[in-house]
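The material for today's practical consists of a large collection of protein records. Read left to right, the backbone structure tokens trace the chain's path through space. An example says more than a description, so a record of this kind follows:
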Amino acid sequence: MNRIALAALAAAIVALAGAADAQQRRDFSKIEITATDLGHRTWMLQGEGGNMTAAVTGDGTILVDGEFAPLHDKIKAAIAALSPQKVRYLVNTHFHGDHTGGNAGFAQEGATVVAQVNVRNRLAAGTTNGLTGRKTPPATAEALPAKTYTDAMMLVLKDRTVQLGHIANAHTDGDTYAYFPDADVLATGDIVTLGKRYPNIDFANGGGIDGMIAGVDAYLKLVNDNTRIVPGHGPLVNKAKLAEYRAMLADARERVAKLIAAGKSESEAVAAKPFADIQASIGASDQASVNFVRVIYNSLKRG
């Protein structure tokens, strides 16, 4: 790697670390939780961090993901405005803090935190970001999922069920989707991320581009044209948009795979700017494109 490439890579790492630090400094007092009615006592909740899905039953509320810990009271109030039923189950779609920050607060109020077993393992051990090297310390005992599963699980309350399924080695190694059949609503976790951003692939913690594509394929088989799809980040999706997203993932994989086959290093792959047209179409930042090249490159090399 030449001196210029090393400098560019170092700058990217510094920028990512700065973004992480900025995330820690966000002012949660200004965040409002909004609810989108998906029908059949089911809502998408959005604040700061990953999207949430709330499903009210006659015996408690099922909440998928819980954003950041400082937002617990606001999330609780938003749910209370929809129903007097308290959170009975909190499902983690994966271990990242913008989805699991609410674990301890809701667990202390009686909710059972549910996740794929690798989520508990990652939270208990602590993790390292593959791009920045930033370390996240082990979670406290009360923040760990109390109920885990390996491949699939059904949560059953008084008058509703939710189907949980594991997608292997996709966004992470512990991804869960939640499907509410009576409402025809699917919560995907960060295997699906939309808006002015690319999806992240946590290659250092079991994620991979091939698993991301396989995960979307599984979703496409599960949903129909009327399914309301709640992505990990971004607006609601339908099946047609999900298919477009899948095509983008496959195209991005192929572009990076060709650079690897041509013997390009990671820094050379970044310098080739293989996603210039995709970046323009979604309005993502230059740094986001750099990161997306790097996570696909690393997941393919490790795979």
Notes: The CA atoms of residues 55 and 206 lie 29 Å apart. DSSP finds ten helices and 14 strands in the chain.
